[in-house]
Specification:
Blueprint (H helix, E strand, L loop, with lengths): L11 H12 L5 H18 L10 E20 L5 E21 L2 E12 L4 H13 L10 E4 L5 H9 L4 E4 L1 H8 L11
Parallel strand pairs: 1-4, 4-5
Antiparallel strand pairs: 1-2, 2-3
């Protein structure tokens, strides 16, 4: 039974084929499955590791995706193999992108993320509270939060950071609203 890779919609076999082509020799299903399971543990550790250097600026946004999982209905594929039908659910990945200077060089990377049901302030607050627990606060060098105006993000920033950091709404989104444009689905905040 194919297991889908979270967020990429590929079966383990498809991932094996891609990895095999990349490394130039066969990669087995067991190897791929072991690596995926190792990533889950590393991700959990990452979410609770204190920052070595707190970003000066954190940009927050939500990325909407369809996450697939194995359903209960059995269907037959093109080779007439019995497979569980896949079911999809719209979810949002709440992303925190950090910007700072380290060793004289500009650095930009995803500093945290969370898969959520919506962009309501309760969902964002969980991510922001975790950022604070990891050290992302004004006392440690955080200067600003950049965000769009969608969902409950503004309320969550207000609850977690109050007036301790600059709360800057994304200028690109403000420009779109002034021009009367609706962001397309790939730009949706």
């Amino acid at each position: 039974m194919p297991v889908s890779c979270s967020g990429c919609g590929q079966s383990l076999r498809e991932i094996c084929d891609r990895w095999s082509a990349t490394v130039g020799h066969p990669v087995g299903l067991r190897t791929v499955n072991e690596r995926i399971n190792q990533l889950e543990l590393l991700a959990k550790q990452f979410h609770h590791t204190p920052f070595k250097q707190v970003p000066e600026v954190i940009q927050l946004d939500g990325i909407w995706v369809t996450i697939t999982k194995q359903g209960e209905v059995i269907v037959h594929d093109q080779r007439n193999r019995a497979r569980h039908e896949r079911e999809g659910k719209k979810m949002v990945i709440l992303v925190a992108l950090g910007f700072w200077i380290e060793d004289g060089k500009e650095k930009r990377e995803v500093v945290d993320w969370q898969i959520a049901e919506s962009e309501k302030h309760e969902e964002w607050k969980v991510l922001l509270d975790r950022l604070v627990e990891r050290g992302a606060k004004a006392d440690n060098g955080l200067k600003a939060i950049i965000r769009d105006g969608c969902g409950g993000l503004g309320r969550a920033v207000e609850l977690v950071y109050a007036q301790s950091v600059i709360d800057q709404r994304c200028i690109f989104r403000q420009h779109q609203e002034c021009e009367g444009q609706e962001p397309n689905r790939t730009q949706r905040g």
